[in-house]
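ok trying again, last paste got cut off:
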Amino acid sequence: MSVLAQQIKSYFGIVSDVEIEKISTFFHKEYLKKDDFFLQKRQRVNKLSFIESGILRIFVHTDKKEVTQWISTAGTFVTDLTGFMYDDVSRWNIQALSDTVLYSISKEDYKKAGTMLSKWNEFEKTFIVKCFTKMEERIFCHLSMSSEERYHYFFGHNKELFNQVPLQYIASMLGMTPETFSRIRKK
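nice, full thing came through this time. structure:
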């Protein structure tokens, strides 16, 4: 079983080895160097990628500041999901924070896979549910937790990122100023 097939099985767990091998044939390996862009705002979204190794930051510039929406790590998928699913342009910039290895499927192959693979609907449904669940969790944290609680929750689930990612990106993702983030860290 290929590395990608193993990753898909561990991510989804519901697909047979034969189906996983079929799915993995639609993906191709890509490499990004640190600071390369996976996707830039207003660029047509034409691929969905699984991160084998590396870290990608999803962000946007507003009139007043730069906002980090998410930091994606190994073992997760990355794209601008709205742009990908609706054949639209990206609302986000996605940039490598380290050298990154990806397995990517084009929009065209994604559609082909849906017609050729019997388990594709299950695969897609599981993917969308995981995305939605993560979004619900983030919304709940932002609505129900103080800045300090969000910091501790994120730290408890992502300790390794604190040594790999500039802290202002984590602060932005958690909805804090760098000063608030720094004050909480000192406690």
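cool. The first strand starts at residue 28 and ends at 32. The chain has a mean pLDDT of 90.
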